[in-house]
Amino acid sequence: MIKFDISILPGDGIGPEVVAASLDVLRAAETRLRGVRFECTELSVGAGEYLKNGDPLPGSAIARMKQADAILLGAMGLPSVRWPNGVEMTPQIDIREKLDLYNGVRPIKLYHESHSPLKGYGGVNGKPIDFVIIRENCEGLFSERLTPRPAGRDFETDTLKITRRGAERVCREAFKLARTRRKHCTLVDKANVLPSMAFFRKVFDEVAAEFPDVQTDRVYIDAMALFLVQRPHTFDVMVTENMFGDILSDLAAGLVGGMGMAPSADLGDEYGLFQPSHGTAPTIAGKGIANPVATILSLAMLLDWLDHPETKRAARLIEQAVARVCGDPANRTADLGGSLGTRAITEKIIAALE
Ligand code: ATP
Ligand code: MG
């Protein structure tokens, strides 16, 4: 019997609700596996933990995460819980940096044509939407947000720093992923204006030379916002800077039904953390209506990443169950215009596991 040790971070807002739904799916999938078991340890991290104990990300929690085989996170942060400089506490970003989870993987897939605001996508004759955004997670515009600055200035700055190491390793992961898919990798940048991005492009071009079998494109971020609305089916894997990836992944989620349909993985060379792309959605927290699909699909990514034949099989079972349930337009949560609650859609997904 192989035991996998999973750290569970429910977090704040709707985090605990979507994580509980995913754990029910995990337990149901586990009964269908041979020779593997999951031991889940819950850790308190986030705005709620800060309000209780004064630290949103205790060192003991980080130490425990480092021992685990993988980490499943709900969502963290609340608009009212801020640092003295006015910015929200974002332990989910701090964890990426502490565990060096530089590779933000955000798959975007349309399960039913009615989920998309675009016409002509999905369905039997429609074009599929099926691409992955690779977001650099550890540097770029987000990385110096906590650097202390002198008080009382009548200006403030943020630094967009891209290092060779940072760009190289994330581009390499994007190309490796493209190789397993449709062999197309698009760089999204602003190399025409920003020297940091011109540098990113230079590194991308160098890495591209290592992958002659992968076709490449280079698109400016503003043009990508346009193309994602006009022709999302033409993209396979795209790689971009931290904040551009943050913004593009919300736009991309909107193409396939919203944040409740967008899973993600934050991967490094040692650790893997899996979470929905959405935040804590405080306005719908506690109502039992949050869409758990993004978290359930993140769980499937976690199981795939554990890289054992049985966990990979579980990942496929879960993905197929989600595809079957979400492929039926009768099965809609409130964010997709339906009336199923968190529990009801989770039960349907569990029933569809085969
Ligand atoms: P963050 O700063 O952490 O990215 P955010 O401020 O961008 O968070 P989200 O919490 O992602 O905001 O919410 C964006 C919108 O999507 C809100 O209207 C929210 O209610 C909705 N939303 C997010 N996740 C879900 C979900 N799982 N189910 C239903 N609606 C959701
Ligand atoms: Mg957001």
From TrEMBL:
One Pfam family in the UniProt entry: Iso_dh
PROSITE patterns with a match to the protein in the record: IDH_IMDH
Organism taxonomic ancestry: Bacteria, Pseudomonadati, Verrucomicrobiota, Opitutia, Opitutales
The protein's name in its UniProt record: 3-isopropylmalate dehydrogenase
Cofactor needs: Mg(2+); Mn(2+)
InterPro entries noted in UniProt: IsoCit/isopropylmalate_DH_CS (IPR019818), IsoPropMal-DH-like_dom (IPR024084), Isopropylmalate_DH (IPR004429)
Pathway membership: Amino-acid biosynthesis; L-leucine biosynthesis; L-leucine from 3-methyl-2-oxobutanoate: step 3/4
Record GO biological process: L-leucine biosynthetic process
EC number: 1.1.1.85
GO annotation, cellular component aspect: cytosol
Assigned keywords, A-Z: Amino-acid biosynthesis, Branched-chain amino acid biosynthesis, Leucine biosynthesis, Magnesium, Manganese, Metal-binding, NAD, Oxidoreductase
Gene3D superfamilies assigned: Isopropylmalate Dehydrogenase
PANTHER family: 3-ISOPROPYLMALATE DEHYDROGENASE
Keyword Manganese: yes
